[in-house]
Amino acid sequence: MTSPSTENLPSPEPTAPTAQTTGAVAPGWDPPAVPTTRLPETPPGTPPEAPPEAPDQHPDHVPPSRRFLARAALVTASLSVAGSLLGLVRDQSLARLFGAGRDTDAFLVAWTVPEFAATLLIEDGLAFALIPAFSRALARRAQGAGGDPVRSLVAGTLPRLAPVFTAVGGLLALAAPQFVAALAPGLSDAGLAVDCTRLTATCVLSFGLAGYCSAALRAHRRFLAPAAIYIVYNLCIVAAMYAFGGRWGVRAAAFGVAAGGLLMVLVQLPSLIRVVGSRRGLTRDPVPPVAVEPRAVDVRLMATVLLFALCRQSQVLIERFLASGLPAGAISHLNYAQKVAQIPMSLSLMLCTVTFPVVARALAEGDTERARARVERDLAVAAALVLLGTAAVVACAPQLIALLFQRGAFTAADTAATAGVMRVYAIGLLGQTLTGVLVRSYFSAGRAAWYPVGAMTAGIAVTSCVGALALGSWGVTGIAAANATGITVTAALLLAGMRRRSVPVRTPLVLRELSRPLRAAVVAAVSGALVAALPATPLAALAAGTATVTVVFALLACVLGAQGCTCALRRVRTLTRRLAHALLR
Fold this sequence. Notes:
By secondary structure, the protein is mainly α. The chain has helices at residues 66-98, 102-110, 112-123, 125-142, 149-174, 176-183, 190-200, 203-219, 224-227, 229-248, 251-266, 269-277, 299-323, 330-348, 350-364, 368-395, 397-405, 412-426, 429-443, 451-474, 476-496, 498-501, 507-532, 538-560, 563-584.
């Protein structure tokens, strides 16, 4: 069975909602009020005028139905899970081939470049600026603006951004020795890190173009190709390590990063050409269309979103700077712990990836209430999912790391160190998720917002201070604790500023809702850890622990009335029935 594609998912018919059709409206979407007007009376005998011809409407101009959002979320989550699993295979291959020592430390310093590029150009920064811009262009197209606002936006942005990406990548390659010296001054093999950095610097251009394609496609409600990019990316890295690792060493992984970035662009390019080059969906104008001047993205907006993403990702810089002075392997232990612990966070944000264009389109059309309901629902569901994953990570950390990485050059001592770091790091996963949901709301209106930058700067300051103080006593575990503390402070500041500076969510209601799955997660983590300690083998312990966590969390969440858990369970049941029907029919 193949995954359902959202390239051409059916949207609701462009008709007014009725008693029969309102059930298909997406949750949080209130039908717009229809003004009542008194028509002028016509003299008797006057023939009735023909009704005006209805403009052509493209599915992109119709509010998405609940069924569409569910299917889009399923496709995005399925492909993202596949990409995350391949990311684990990538990390397993790195650990198996090169262990957790000076070679992997050198590569992971160079890995900072694609990590930053992915956050700045694909996942957060560029998307926060471009998705609202494309949403406004689509709204103007639906309202009958002359010409094609979407093509105008592409003409005004892509030719300006591509040379910037190229210049930054080239400058980074030239300054690789200085970059490595500043990032990890205590690194034992700086020359190897410089070689890897020059290879990974190419991803600034490729990730920038991939992020542009992804933002444009998601605004057009095309989620298949953007969700597949990390599959081809990780496959390319794994293939390069096994094909060239014997001759090139860890440099083969850096070459895989460069080749994988190119594939991320190529896999999205056909879909982008179709949605931007097509004339379908243009509203008929009463007058001939006029040329539209190319529109550029607001420079202040771009500055704020990139600064926020840069500040957020600088947590990695702080961690690696502090860990570079610790014994060899500390950076690797942090990396492996983060990669595994962040899986629940990544999955919990899949729904927001689908609904971010929905919120941006609602604000572009002036429907604040619809945007508020959507954001509150996203917060509840994302928090419930990430807290369930956090409880499982905390309960079964040693067994999970042993099964994933303990083979080849990765020893039992590496497993114990990585599991300890991961348990501490997981404490900040709720803050990571809330930050990811809330910052989308700040930038969904397509306006510059400096408050998120200030909130993230405060969190970075906390991370730096706590990390410096805890490094001497706790070592790498203190660095993980600093990360969790800093991002939690950022999430609290973002939530506190929502009402006045962003979508006006009801903060007391949101806090009460968050407390319910949080209490369930604490009890589930303790119960799962006790059960996971009983079986002798890691696989049996992991199965018993995760099953206990899931059952305890689900029962307590339902008893406490957590709406996010109830909504998530309802969606799981719906998707399960659909999959069973598709397999058994």
